[in-house]
Every structure is written in structure tokens, then in C-alpha cells.
Amino acid sequence: MLKPWLSRFTVLVTVLAVIGNIYIFTYPSLYPQRCSWRCANQKVAIDALDSLSLVEKTAYYARRYWEDVRQQFGTAKVVDRSSRKDMPADVHLLALGDPQIKGVWKNTPYLSRLDTYGNDYYLGHIFAMMKRRLRPSHVAVMGDLFSSQWISDSEFYNRTMRYTSRIFQRDTSWLEKTRQESHDADGLYAVDWTTFADDLGERLQKQPKDFEFGYNDVQTWDPAKEDYLFINLTGNHDIGYSGDVTYQHMARFHELFGKDNYWIEYGRDTEHPWRIVVLNSMLLEGPALQQQLVDKTWEFLYRLFEQRFDGSTVLLTHVPFYKKPGLCADSELFRYYPSDYEREPYKQNLLRSQNHLSEDATRRVLNLIFDNNKPGIILTGHDHEGCETVYNKDAKAKWTASKAVSSTDFHVREITVRSMMGEFDGNAGLVTGHYNPRTKQWEWSFSLCPFSVQHVWWFTKVVTILSGLLLSVMVFL
Ligand SMILES: *[C@@H]1O[C@H](CO)[C@@H](O)[C@H](O)[C@H]1NC(C)=O
Ligand SMILES: *[C@@H]1O[C@H](CO)[C@@H](O)[C@H](O)[C@H]1NC(C)=O
Hints:
Keywords: Membrane, Transmembrane, Transmembrane helix. This protein is α/β, with parallel strands linked by helices. It has helices at 2-26, 54-73, 110-134, 153-167, 173-181, 193-205, 236-239, 247-257, 291-306, 359-369, 454-476, and strands at residues 91-96, 138-141, 214-216, 229-232, 262-266, 274-279, 312-317, 334-336, 351-354, 376-380, 387-393, 399-402, 410-416, 428-436, 441-449.
């Protein structure tokens, strides 16, 4: 009685599982161009697509998909970043927007726990797919790694563990070691922030101030283990806005994720220098809780300026630059703690949140970084919707944001990378840098590779498990 019904159901579930898995493991092939680095000889999409009939269109997309799948899984897979020996390799930077992973607490319902657990692997799937397909030279997570700045050291550590192992499939032995070196009486991670604060105070006092911000030609932090460079950015949910950021916030970020402000110069003494600038945009404005932390960020920018770098710049920072309302989803918004704030009186009047940098901070930062008028690109996070804007510099070194280029002097594009969260379709941003020997300039391009809402991934996992169970039941019936 049961058997025919069951076997039909099993076939259905198995077919769904196969389709689901094919989809989640080949999704970038549906958008081969957006999900590939820009090559100098890349084919342009055919303009005449609109005039095709539905059947012809379907055939076109199917062929495009199939060709890409064949390329990905075939033997002829080559990732060659440099086309000519005497030219620098293309820069292939994977930019991932705001993962914002949540925590699990004692009273978190089981369904939300499962959701949080699955979400880690959903994000991990995106990263694994992109890494396999694209072999990036750089990977940058655009800040807001976690969902809240108001968490204990132990929770911060636990999320770092998940971030490192589940999402980015990286070695965690150093994290274990860090916990053994700094923990509380219960063995839980606790950062030694007083030493951090004392050290910062001392360094700020020295003349010149004693900071090391710069690197040269770093291809990876760990040559024995990996061939790409991993960059973690600070976001307001990791350390807070400047009215919230404590030494404790900064100390643990430094210990587990590295510096918040630094530059890496590549090929400084060649014809084709370029650099990465990582900027902590939470600590530029105020009123701040710890002015010293803001002072340090400005010190960083002055030092960067003094480098008199003559190449192209890729600026990575979390909070977008100032722009008029209507250009992106978020408009300018500054909130301050009220002057009678009872809950935490020491925060009264301090900066509580911001959507953009202020107009003044924008001008100062851009003039310090893009002073040499060499082409570059700005990548930001924060506004989960994603956006593209152009910053036009006029003769008086004033900057105006617009949708199109309006300056004849100099402009730089700001890409707000759409979030990799499921609600925003699990995007990955692809930045290609190509040195053009004719113009002797770097050229930067960006594309967004979308996956789909987390439910599709979940559905695939569920039907896969279910079909496994059903198939084994069928064997015994
Ligand atoms: C972090 O993880 C450890 C080990 O699983 C656990 O004992 C601890 O309670 C966690 N911390 C928090 C704040 O939940
Ligand atoms: C950034 O975070 C990853 C994952 O936790 C870690 O492996 C890496 O060492 C961090 N980068 C730096 C410069 O500390």
C-alpha cells in the first residue's frame, strides 16, 4: 500500500535534491560575466538580446550557462593573472559586504539557533564557491563581521571562531593559543585592554608618534598556508561608533582581527605602483568616548599623506562618504546620545551613530588619500543595499558625489558593496585591477555576483538529507 506512494515521493525528493545541488554548486555560471574577473579581452554581452524570441533567449542563456560550467569543471581551467611577462599581474580582490553574524544566547529559541548555525554555512558556501572559482589575490570583509558591538569578550571570541572556521574555513589553532594566553578565571577569553590602552597612550606621547602603519608588497600574511591576502575591516557592529568605542573594543579587535588602519604598497619603485589603504572610519569623527583612538586614526592619515605615494589607491573602509540624499539607500544621518542619557551617563552628547562621514571629514580624508590624482577605487560597506557613486574633485579640492562623472579634473568611484547576508541574496563583490601599459595607469572595475536568499540553500540541504534517508529506507523495504 505504502510502497508505491513512498517510492514516488522518494523520486520527487531526490530529483529536487539533485536540482538544488546543481544550482547551489554552479550558481555563478548563471551570471558568468558578473561572477568572473574582468579580462581585457572579455566578450561583451550581445546587445541584440532584447530582439530575440523567448525560445532563442532561453537557448542563449542555457548555452552560456553550460559553457561556463564546462569551463569551471573541465580540465582546461587556468587562472592566469598576468597576460604578459613584463606586466604586473591583475589585482583580483574579492569584497564581501557585512556578514553580521548573530549570537546564540541561553534563551534563544531552537529554531533561531538552527537558523544562525545554518547561516554560517550558507555564508561559508558563498566564500568556498568564490574561492574555488576565482582564486582571489585579496579577500576583504567590509566590516560588520558581527551583529553587535555590545557583547562580552568571550562572545566576541566565540564568534571569531565561527567566522574563522565555518565561514572562511581557516586555521583556528592560533585562536586556541590566544585564548590560552589571555583568559579569565573560567578559562574564557578575556582581552588585556589596560595594557593596550597604556601602550597606546605612550605611543601617542612620543615625538614623532610611535606607530607602524605601513607594509610593502605583502601577498599573504601566511605564505606557508595560503596564497591570498585576508583583510578584516572594522565595522560599527564590531567596535561601535566613536561614542561607543572603548579600549576594550579596540584591544580585542586588534588581537583577533589585526590592525584597523594600515596601508600596503605594491611595486613602489616600479612604473606601476598601487596600494591598498585600510581605514577605520568609525574613529574619524566625534564627540568620541576615547579621543586618543580618534587621534590615532588621524595620525594614520597624515602619515599616509607623508608617504607621497605616486600610484593608484584602493581604499577599503566601512562607512560610506558624504553624499546628498537620493544617491544611495541611506542618507546622511548623525545621532548623538541625549544630554540627559541616564543609562550610561558617560556617553551623554557623544556620537551614537552615523550613516555617512560628514561632508568635512569626507573632504579631508579624500584629499589626504587621493592627493596624487591617480585613478583608484573606494569600497565601503554599511549600507546593505549596495550602491555606486562618483566623487568628483574640483579645482579647489572640493568633492561632490554624483551618479555620473562631472569633473574634468579628477574623480574616483565609490562602490558600496551589497551585503552577503541572505536577505540581500548572498553577494560577493569582484574588483579587478588591470595595469594598462599604454596609458600607464591602473584601471579598476567592479561587478557583483549574486547567489540567492538563504531559503534556497536551506531547502537544498533539507531535501538532500531527506532523500538520503528515504533512499536508505527504500533499500530495506
Ligand atoms: C563561548 O564558548 C565557550 C565554549 O563553547 C562557552 O563555554 C562560553 O560560555 C561561550 N561564551 C559565551 C559568552 O556564550
Ligand atoms: C582576519 O581574520 C581572519 C579570520 O579570523 C584571520 O585568520 C586573519 O588572521 C585576520 N587577519 C589579520 C591581519 O589578523
